[in-house]
Design brief:
The complex is a heterodimer of chains A (about 375) and B (about 260). Chain A is an alpha+beta fold. Chain A has helices at about 5-15, 20-30, 35-45, 65-75, 85-90, 90-95, 100-110, 190, 230-265, 280-305, 315-335, 350-355, 365-375, and strands spanning about 115-120, 135-140, 145-155, 160-165, 180-185, 195-200, 210-220, 225, 270, 275. By secondary structure, chain B is α/β, with parallel strands linked by helices. Chain B has helices at about 35-50, 65-75, 90-105, 125-135, 185-190, 235-250, and strands at about 1-5, 10, 20, 25, 30-35, 55-60, 80-85, 110-115, 135-145, 150-155, 160-165, 170-175, 195-200. Classes of the chains: A alpha+beta (about 375), B alpha/beta (about 260). The structure holds flavin-adenine dinucleotide (FAD). Chain A: This is Acyl-CoA dehydrogenase.
């Protein structure tokens, strides 16, 4: 890994983020608004095209570099969740799409003129048990007719395209439950009002997540990604990349928290001395820092394996768990260090605290990582 | 059009300066492109976009300053030159002499640099360099347009503006307001990796450092005294005014 290049990348992202200070994110949070200006600036600077190969107009970088980009956004006090999916959702299209589909979409995704940053998997009645999902697509001539419902699908209101996981062969007609699922590319600009209804969900942080109601939505057959019935495996092989990128966002959050905690502990004087002189204040901050550094090593290890094309399922999952735990610990410590001011919006700690809490649940819940490790690393019986 | 930008890496303006044994501590400090030089780089790239040609960025400084040059390359400059020879670091006199040596045999139509650096704040390198090269210079410009061999410049003169027409070749120094520097884009950063970086020493320049030794020396460096808490007067307004006049006369000695 070329350290000086990564440093340059960090500086590049910091330059963009520098124009979007705490107050910008705070105001969006209050208004529940989408960070349109930030996303446009980041897009114009080409950072969201990092993973797209050069032949399709991107920069052809690896997961290591891309993860650094997302890390820096969170580290600056912002939240990469608003646009990270534009970076990696196209992976399914890149790996499994036809040459025609790639030519048609990737270049525009790279330059940002098309947004593909919505991925509809989760459903209200099946949740984590993805293969049981109830949304169906039935082929009629050169169209699929899609019916069903999705929940917590983020950024659909700010995306032009969406990948949608649907069942194309009923469960009772497949040998394995992982078969019979397919990935469709839905053009949201046409679909909304023509079979697709989007309903925003108010969540504890500003995340632009939505509920989708799908009724007789028509999707051209040419928008099927890869082969019919293989959608689940297509999604699985994008997971490791996502885990590593999310781990990096957690690391970015953690760094932001530690910096704020240290700054405040040094500056806040109570009982005639900075609170940071008390071990009761410094030790929890030190511990959070230690755990963050350890998580960061696992993140870079996983990224290195991924970029070398080696197996990295265990490392990617462990990195996500460690990093999410570390950022959450750092968040908690920072809130505690700030006393009452931690709860005041003006300090941004409570906002980041709410934001980083999400990583314990989405895009993958901690329990599911532990069951992965139990089953695939330790050889224990499958528990789900 | 051949365009040269002379630039410098400086402390990040958000860094806290600390001094140990009379020296400014550089450990763990973030360095940036001098903000005024950023305007110069942006203007140079805009000129290239308008007229074609090539932008060469150059600096005299330690090897860490290569990062600043790389950022300029990522913004869109084409080539970089660094004189990373400690013997040539000196003061504005030495640096402008060294730069003149680098530039004298190169082709250029215009040289741009910052009006001043945010660390030393001397504002001398630009004008000195122009003198060395025997070309005209215009300082603190806020607007630049070129037609044929003539540049029309608007310059900031202490709050007012002055417009001047000057023949090329020419050196200008950039003032805030000239433009809004772009971010280095990711494709820009990628391309910068492959752009040439020329490293020069006094030997390469056939320069004897002894002949251009600094004319000035830093005798002492110290931080400004800590700001004392202000004083709020109280009592009847009449008495407050009297007290204030007394204080201004006897304590502050300003009236
Ligand atoms: C803000 C936000 C944005 C999101 N964005 C998207 C998106 O863009 N696209 C998308 O498809 N989804 C998205 N999600 C959905 C997210 O991926 C799911 O919420 C998550 O996978 C958990 O599913 P669930 O909420 O149905 O929880 P459930 O599956 O109901 O699980 C509830 C709890 O039980 C635990 N659990 C379940 N089964 C087991 C087991 N066998 N062993 C141990 N523990 C178990 C889970 O870990 C969890 O803690 C988003 C969610 C949120 C909150």
């Amino acid at each position: 890994m070329d350290k000086s290049f990564l440093d340059e990348l960090r500086q590049g992202v910091r330059a963009v983020c520098g124009d979007f200070p705490d107050a910008y994110w705070r105001e969006l949070d209050e208004k529940r608004a989408y960070p349109e200006d930030f996303v446009n600036a980041l897009t114009a600077a080409g950072f969201l095209g990092a993973l797209i190969p050069e032949e399709y107009g991107g920069s052809g970088l690896g997961i290591t570099e891309s993860s650094v980009i997302l890390e820096e956004i969170n580290r600056s006090g912002g939240n990469a969740g608003a646009c990270h999916a534009q970076m990696y959702t196209m992976g399914t299209l890149l790996r499994h799409g036809s040459e025609q589909q790639k030519q048609r979409y990737l270049r525009k995704i790279a330059d940002g003129s098309l947004r593909l940053q919505a991925f509809g998997v989760t459903e209200p009645n099946t949740g984590t048990d993805t293969t049981q999902l109830k949304t169906t697509a039935v082929r009629k001539g050169d169209k699929y007719i899609v019916n069903g419902q999705k929940v917590f699908i983020s950024r659909t209101e700010y995306s032009d395209l969406m990948l949608l996981l649907v069942r194309t062969t009923p469960l009772d007609q497949v040998k394995k439950r992982t078969e019979g699922l397919s990935v469709l590319l839905v053009d949201l600009r046409e679909a909304v009002g023509n079979g697709l209804t989007i309903k925003p969900i108010r969540t504890m942080m500003n995340h632009a997540t939505t509920e989708l109601f799908i009724e007789d939505l028509e999707v051209p057959v040419e928008n099927l990604i890869g082969e019919e019935g293989k959608g689940f495996s297509y999604i699985l092989d994008g997971m490791n990349a996502e885990r590593i990128l999310i781990a990096a966002e957690c690391i970015g959050d953690g760094r932001w928290f530690i910096e704020r905690a240290v700054g405040y502990a040094n500056q806040r004087v109570v009982f005639k001395r900075p609170i940071g002189e008390n071990q009761g204040i410094q030790f929890p901050i030190s511990r959070a820092h230690v755990n963050l550094e350890a998580a960061d090593l696992m993140r870079f290890r996983a990224a290195e394996l991924f970029d070398a094309g080696q197996k990295c399922g265990a490392e990617a999952n462990m990195a996500k768990l460690l990093a999410a735990d570390a950022s959450w610990e750092a968040a908690n410590v920072t809130l505690q260090t700030h006393g009452g001011y931690g709860f005041a919006e003006e300090y941004d700690v409570e906002r980041k605290f709410r934001e980083t809490r999400l990583y314990q649940v989405a895009p993958i819940s901690t329990n599911l990582i532990l069951s992965y490790v139990a089953e695939h690393v330790l050889g224990l019986p499958r528990s789900y | 059009m051949n365009i040269i930008v002379v630039m410098k890496q400086t402390f990040d303006t958000e860094e806290k300066v600390s001094i140990q044994n009379g020296q400014i501590v550089e450990d763990g400090v973030e360095f940036i492109i001098n903000p005024y030089d950023e305007y110069a780089i942006e203007e140079a790239i805009k000129l290239k976009e308008e007229f074609g040609g090539e932008v060469t960025v150059m600096t005299v400084g330690p090897s860490r300053a290569e990062n600043a040059l790389r950022t300029a390359l990522a913004m869109g400059a084409d080539k970089a030159v660094i004189v990373d020879d400690e013997e040539l670091f000196g003061d504005e006199y030495t640096i402008s002499k060294a730069l003149a040596h680098v530039i004298k045999d190169r082709d250029y139509d215009i040289i741009l640099t910052g009006n001043t650096s945010v660390d030393n704040g001397a504002g001398q390198v630009g004008p000195r360099l122009a003198e060395e090269l025997g070309i005209a210079h215009v300082a603190t410009i806020t607007k630049l347009s070129i037609e044929g061999a003539v540049a029309t410049l608007v310059r900031d003169v202490e709050g007012d503006t002055e417009t001047v027409d000057v023949k090329l070749p020419l050196l200008v120094t950039a003032q805030q307001g000239l433009n809004e520097p772009r971010y280095p884009s990711l494709p820009g950063i990628m391309k910068a990796k492959k752009k040439p970086m020329e490293r020069l020493s006094a030997d390469d320049l056939e320069l004897d450092p002894e002949t251009i030794k600094a004319k000035t020396a830093i005798v002492e460096q110290y931080l400004p005294p800590k700001k004392e808490a202000g004083r709020v007067l109280s009592g009847e307004l009449q008495d407050q005014v009297k007290e204030l006049v007394q204080l201004l006369r006897n304590e502050a000695k300003v009236i």
